[in-house]
């Protein structure tokens, strides 16, 4: 899975974040709790330096609680990072972001000075939903955002906190192909930009390996399917996803699987663990080094 993003937008967003960060006391980075690594923007970690940061695990209603705890522990090992779990249906919990901001900027809060916070995150992680909860009224548009740079907004909140919205639109992880698949499974990438079967098979393989009991329960399977194809065949057949001649329509089966994953009908399921990411990044580093070598070789032989 590769994701296209415009270099012009990327450059502009990086520049604007860097500029705004000078005036920011606390950074609020929103991630999707189902994919707490892949739904991060890769430059934030590089730009924030020692800025106190709250990583908000949003949509935790859709994620596996045990995995969310492991991810929180993983991020909290970094100095300057605190984490918080959030979901749209528990607005009171989301409001903890404000008290945490006060704790992370103690010198401002004891002197009754305004605390400047900036909320960042890739599209669809729930920034607008969180902004509306914190503001106590619907001021940000929730749902699909057009891929255009919007003007930066400043919002005055309780406790003398000024919230700055993400400048521009941030792109997700594109270095690791697994991240592309997970973003596609979660619904973070437009359906028109993904290959349903490719993504569906990836999802089926992962779910079979890590959440086979949930699959068996949801689709009433007696035994664990022996492969992703076996699973999609059985599931598609049960759900009437057939094509002419009676064979299972795999595209339709994949569509059902992705749809039911996204609505958490299969269960609250997380798509990655810190251990998986550590392993994958080793492979990515090797591949990048090989690519660089090939590039240098080509130059030499020209
Ligand atoms: N299940 C679930 N959906 C959420 C949650 N927060 C936001 N959403 C949904 O995710 C989608 C994107 O939310 P939005 O706030 O527009 O994200 P933004 O692009 O980061 O501003 C919307 O359909 C929201 O209703 C949550 O905690 N749980
Ligand atoms: Mg938004």
From TrEMBL:
InterPro entries: G_CP_dom, GTP-bd, GTP-bd_ortho_bundle_sf, GTP-bd_ribosome_bgen, GTPase_MTG1, P-loop_NTPase. Pfam families: MMR_HSR1 (PF01926). It is found in: Cytoplasm. SUPFAM superfamilies: P-loop containing nucleoside triphosphate hydrolases (SSF52540). GO terms for cellular component: cytoplasm. One of its GO terms (biological process) is translation. This is Ribosome biogenesis GTPase A. It comes from Candidatus Endobugula sertula.
